[in-house]
Every structure is written in C-alpha cells, then in structure tokens.
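Re: your question about Gram-positive cocci surface proteins LPxTG domain-containing protein

S., sorry for the slow reply, the queue was backed up all week. Below is exactly what I fed in.
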Amino acid sequence: MKLLMRAAAAAASVVAFAVPAPAQAAPTSVTLAAVTELNAAGKPVAYPVKPGETGKAVLGVVNLADEPLAGVVVEVRVLNDMDLPRVYTNCQYYVDANVEGAWCEFDRELVKGETVATDFAVAAAPSADPANWSRVITRWFPKSYADERGGIAKLAELDNVGASKPGPGTGGGAVTLAPRPLPIPAAPSGVGFTDLKLMVTRLAALNARDAAGKPLVYPISRGETIGLNLGVANLGTAPAEGVVLRVRAYDDLDLPRLFTNCQYYVDANLEGAWCEFPQTVPADRSTYALTQFKVAATADAEAKTTKTTQVEWFPKEWSDRQGGIAEIAKKHSGQGTTPAAGTESALTLTPAEMTIPAETSHAIFVHTNLVTTPSSPTPAPSSSGPAIAAPGTPEELVITGSATTAVVAVGGALVLAGVLGLVVARRRRTSFTA
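Result:
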C-alpha cells in the first residue's frame, strides 16, 4: 500500500518539497532554530545511504531565546523512498500518505546560544530511486508546545492518516541530544532540511556502435568463434567496487570456455558465463570495455537460432552477497551439469571510449547474423550461348550474336500461331453462346 502511495505522490513531492501540511501549526516566533553540518564549501553535508540500508541524518537545534528551555520536541518527516525505522523509545512514529514522521521528546535543558544535535536513523527503501528522493525535514518546538496539546503521542495521532497506527519505537533505546559546534544560519528558522545522498550504483551495459550510431550486429559463420565488443559505464551516484558480467547465449550459439575469471555453465538450450572484475568503476560516466568476449556458432547453426546473446552487469557486492560467481553459476546450471572456469587467460576490463546511448539498462541483447554460402556454385554460361547482360539492368533483354535471325524467326512463328489460336477461340466461343 505504501509503495502505491509513494508512486502517486512522487511528482508532487519533488517540487519545493511539497509535504502534506502537519496537523499542528508552528509557532510564529522563532525560539528554536534548526542547524546542521556544513561542508568546506559552506553547503549542508549530504550523508550517504544505500538502498535497503539505514544511514544517519545530523539533526541539530539552537536556543535563540533569552531564557533556558526546559526540554524540546522535534518533528521529523521523510517522503517517498525514505523511511524512518521505528527504533527510538522517546519518539512517536506515524504515517501520512507518502510521508513517514516521528515526534520525539528531549528533556535536556537548552541554554541560550547552545547548539546540540543527534545522529537520527533514516533508511532508504530497498527499491529507492533518485527520482523519488528528497530531504529530511525537521521542525523544532519547546517541550511546552507539545505538553499544551496532550504530548507527542497525541501529536502523532493527529498527524497519522490511514490504517496504520502511531506508536513508540521499539529499538530499546532513546535518541539523545548532545553539544555539537554547528553554524547558526543567518536567517534562522525552526524548520530545517538535512540532505541524504542516495548511493546508487547504476550500471549501463554497452555494445560497440557502427558509423550510423546503431548497435553493432556481428556476422558469424558456422563453426566460427568471434569477439563481441562489450563494455559498461556507471551512471549512478556510488562507485561500483568491482563488477560482475553475465552472458547467456542461446540455441546454436556457444560460449567457448576460455576465460579464467569466468564460471561457465549450461542449462537446457543456453550456455552462460558469470565473470568477475575487481577494478572499481566510478560513478562518473566513464566507459570501460572488455577485451572481446568470445562466442561461437555450432557447425550446423541455423540463421534463426544464432541471433541473440544476452549481456548483464551487476555490482560485485551483489554477487558477493549471493556467495560469489561460482555459487551463482552452480545455481543456474542445468540438472546433471557442473559449472567450470575457463582454461586459457583472464578476460580484462579497461578504460576505453564507448558510446553511452540515450536509453540505458544493466541488460542488453547483442545480435549476431549467420553468414552462409551457397551449397553448390552457380554454373557458368556456355561459351557458345548468347551474351546476356546482368539481371536488373535495362540491357538484360538485349540479345546479340549469330543466333539473332533464328530467334526472330521462331518468335514470329509463335506470334502468328497465337493470333490464329485467338481467332479460332473467339469463333468457338461465339458459336457456343449463340
């Protein structure tokens, strides 16, 4: 249900962080100002987090009042592909459409000008997409603000929308505020924004292109082994610390077991390979090319069954979680077959110029075209016969040589016979219908 609500609200949320309005309005005067860390360029620090993992967001506050404040509360709100793990016992969590929120209470006294902060747990959904990514939004209030409205449990209840129930975290501990030197903004506000950088590795599978910019189609003959000019680029926000290649060839295409860093396997009508490369592919759109991956056509290959090779790229950390390429190849092997490494040399991946198309995917299909020759040569024309121009030219009906007279005579006789036959046929038809 939450995924559907996320998708429906994605477009609205990325414009000026258009969050559904909280049930509780903020005080008009700024007593507390939100603060956060700044980088060397004076910009808010963006804290990294990966899809499916929990990261931190530094949430800070400063007391601008002349008097100490006996406790503060904060409302934390995240949108779309961000989640708030329900871990803190001094927070009341709620859901409002595409928003997850929490009201948290701190009993700590804040004196004037003191900046305090906490590392707050924020998670990225497993399928988090940069297109559905935003910022952590905070609103700070004196504790008296919440007390006058029935406490943070009541505030969370008022903000909660839908079937989910608000409630405290169950992680076994409370979130706390501690002194931290943080810059106070020139225009202080009780509303703060903290950036999280979604660390996504997005690999794009590449194929060489022809002069027209089209993906290469590779000619191949029966029994021949050829090289495919394949590559990869990282279009994401996080580097790939090593990459893994999967190749699958179908029907009359085979994968010669050449490369020692590949695990080859067979499953029914396909041959596959999982290959591993240790080098880092940075998230800067630089392109890397293989030293030609080899495929072969069987000796009896047919054109309709030598068309397709499927190519896919994955981050190495993904394959490591599956137990490595040998374990993955074993899982994909057909019954009664055993995967094995190649026996000649390692397949390498090196920086090289390749074209990144407008539309990309981690998986592509690479096409081959079976080249065949006639089973028997066409007989050459007799030297005594007439000379005939090549078919398809205007001269193809021109006949020259000593046989011209005979051809004309025979042609005239045939025309005359045809005319006589037509006359007879007309007469017969007339007498039949009379």
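The longest helix spans residues 404-433. Residues 203-371 form a domain with the Immunoglobulin-like fold (CATH 2.60.40).

Happy to talk it through on Thursday.
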